[in-house]
Each structure stands twice: as C-alpha cells, then as structure tokens.
Design goal:
The chain is α/β, with parallel strands linked by helices. It has 10 helices and 8 strands. Strands 1, 2, 3, 4, 5, 6, 7 and 8 form an 8-stranded mixed β-sheet that branches. Helix 6 crosses helix 10 and helix 9 packs across helix 10. The chain starts with 8 loop residues before the first helix and ends with a strand.
Length: 286
Amino acid sequence: MGDQEYNFEPFADTKEYKDVNREIIVSWIASLVDAGVEKVERLLDIATGIGTMVQLFVEELPSDWEQPEVICLDKSEGAIKQARKKLTSAVRSLSSINAPIQEMGGLEDKVSVAVWGNGIHNLSEGEQLEAVTRIVRNLEEGGWFFFNSAFYEGARPEGTKSFYRYKVKRAVKLLREKGVERSKDNSRAEASKFLSKKHYRELVERAGLTVREVEELTAPLHQEAWEYISGFKNYAMGALHGYPVEEAQIALKDAVAPALEKYGIKDKEGELYVPRKWLRVSSRLE
C-alpha cells in the first residue's frame, strides 16, 4: 500500500474490524492449540498496516505462552512507522521489512506463523501465487499461514445486493450533478475481481501448503465502517470504474448514509448496518 494511496487504514481501527478479526484470530490460535503447538517463536505479519492484526494476535495468545518475535512487512514506509509506534510497547521483539510481499526475500530465520489480514485480494492471481510461494519459503517445517478477506466471491450475504446497487446508483447521480463524466476506460482494479473460496483453497495448495480450514463468518458493518470501505481506492475503482478515482471515493462515501437508510438493518441500539462476510483460511507446511 502506498502512503496515502487510499483511505483503508482507518477501517482497520474501527470496532467492527477489530471484532471480526479478533474472532478470526481466536479460531486460528485454537487451530494451533488443537494441533499441539505450544508456542509461536516468530510471527510474520504481511501488509501490516497500522499493526492491528499483530496486536490482536498477541492479545489472544494463551497466557502461558511466550510472546513471539514479530516481523512486520508492508510496502508503505508510513505504515511501518505507524505500526512500530503502536506495537513497540506491546511486543518483546519487533523488526520490519519495507517491501511488497511478492518481492520479499529470504528471512534470516524462518517463521512459525505468517498472518495476512484482508489484503490478498489486492493482488492479481499471478501475484498471489508468487506471494504465497515466498511465504512458504520463509515458513519453518510445520509452520502455519493464515489469511482472511472481505473481498471475495460470496462476501455479500443474500439480501444485501440492493444496498450495493443503490449506493452505486446514488454515487453516480452525485457525480453527474457535479458534472463528473465517465471515461471509456473499462479496466478494473484487482480488488473488484472477487475470487472464489475454491480459488483460495487451490492457491495455497499450489504453493505447497496443506489446507486446514476454509470458513466464512458474517459481521455487521455500520455507517462509519462502510464510509471507510467506500474510501478504499481499489473499492471505488471497482464499483465506479471509469470515473476519476478521487471523485468516485467521495461520491461512494456520500452515498453510504442514504443507502443504509433505505436498506440497512437496525441493531439492538437502533443503529443501521449491513452485514458483510469474511473468508478465513488456515494452512500448514507439512
């Protein structure tokens, strides 16, 4: 992720994001415990962003486990700086790599666990295979690779498509009112090409890993979270391809409230939300 390339990191700091990822991480750690793992020596966090996944992972480890050595990898220097600031006091050993995962070299010491939170969908299919292959090269024997994504085929639960259609329709109306026109460029961002559960299962298998679990869970997302997602550059490029990206981001964010008002579900506090599915995958080098 380039510095300031898109407004995704604030989403990683929302309660919704933390809640769903905490639940996912709890399930991953349970897999480790069930497999007889007694400690995580070294943890690699891929596309680390502001360090949310590391923070949650360390918090959910069994209380009698030693903290792992943590390696944060991100192609954004700014993200690395934010993560180091956030995590320095939370982990016993922290190092960082400023590079995209598909260009990561060999680590001096192989890692016990690699975690990739909600980012694999940003790469092309070829880049995904290169990335996971590099991860496997840096896993110790018996090591684990966990990842998740809210941008895959099936991420939109049944009954929610009207919300998305209305949001896009409303955003287009806002753009037209501002005189913003669509170009003839029909290229789409990788994040708009939702890949299937079957694809991700086969991806890790092709890289030499054994799939342990491919599961989905559903999370409620409220207005703030949807506005952050709509400010995500690749999301806007996919939903409103052909329109100037920055204008599309603004229009989609402004369309969230009316779309929720029309198609949102009320929670116990009367706040409107629309559910979103997360895919979680666990695999092991055996």
